Amino acid sequence: MSSRRSENLPAAGSGWRTTLLANTPLPFLFLLLVPIGWAVQSDVFGGYNQRIVMLIGFNIILAVSLQLINGFSGQFSLGHAGFMAVGAYLAAYPAREYSRQFHDPAGTLLFFLSLGIVVALGGIAIWLFLVLMRLSRAIHRSIPPLILVAVLVWMIVDFSSAAEMQRPPAYLIWSHAVTGLESLFAALIGYGAPAAARLSEWLPQAIQQPVCFLVLLGGGGCCAAVVGFVVGLPALRLRGDYLAIATLGLAEIIRIAIQNSQPLGGALGLTPIPKYTDFAWLYAMVLVTVVVVWRVAYSPKGRAIMAVREDEIAAASIGISTTQYKVTAFVIGAFFAGVAGALFALHERSITPSYFGMQKSIELVVMVTLGGLGSISGAILAAIVLTLLPELLRNVSREIVEYRMVIYSLLLVIMMLLRPQGLLGGRELWLRRRGPAKLPAPTEEQAVPV
Known about the structure:
450 residues; mainly alpha; 0% strand
């Protein structure tokens, strides 16, 4: 075929120039957060108003990240509070135990690396077991579920028996396996802590705290993303109500596991947690979340994700890996939910498992639905409205305050009756990213001979 068609292609350098110009306002927005933060955190603004502004920031990150899952990929997840809990606890615990008041970033990183090694070894063992269980299907198709049920019963009996003994016997394999992983984690921390402390001392003192804080945010987000991947890979084979029930159940499993974990504070929660999150850090992460989700949603991969949402069978027929794109959206959403949880924990000084229950997940789904499925700016607007509305109703007359939650619920019902597509209905308040201009179809005179 003739090479004359290349004459009509856009210039080679136009892509990065367009991207650079589109991102020009971002550094100025980040710098602007510092003076705004000084004003918000001043005594004139007031502690109550500061609290509301911070809650709005947390909810924006959670709503925008859930929008990628529920709005753009078309899944119905009710487990976002579980990912937030993972990020919150796995940032608060190392911040309290290993960060030395945010002056040991290398020690904090060592915690996440040691945790990753231990989890990877446990995950490999579980994966090998699942592979062997699946291979047993060649003998008879009913053998894998029977093996799975037998192993689950064995694990329950094993752990319950070990809990009643000071020195469990050798035949309690599962209990000894968990104890071995705990010993490996303690050994990795013990051997690596002196070197990590020396490495942290080499860093200038001015950057030790922010670097440690970023390690905690990234670590909490990555832990939540791993949980999202483990949860999403099998659960996203389900659809609609079945997926909602599965994600809700898994979120409750996370909450109950934390509630029964003594190192994480149990039912009483984790306290005291060193505080570091302020207005500037929180809203800087709000900007990062919005930009990343926006870039993903309106990129070629985002178009594939939306194609899966519109018609999964048609998307699969043209070569789109539906499971891959659904899991990608799930993992990215879980990551930013974990980051929001880490920011929340490092602001509140204490957290309890009850905060991350089913009510929080439903509240986030309401924000996404009310804003409009598939609208990032709609999720932001709904997060602001639904955070402010209960507080505004709290400050009216005493008679109304007693029924403020009833009024709040009625307003939501009326809103969904009058505008079921949500506040923005899939539209954005800003211009969507534009690609290169499309070329007109060639006429017969311009056709290139083959």
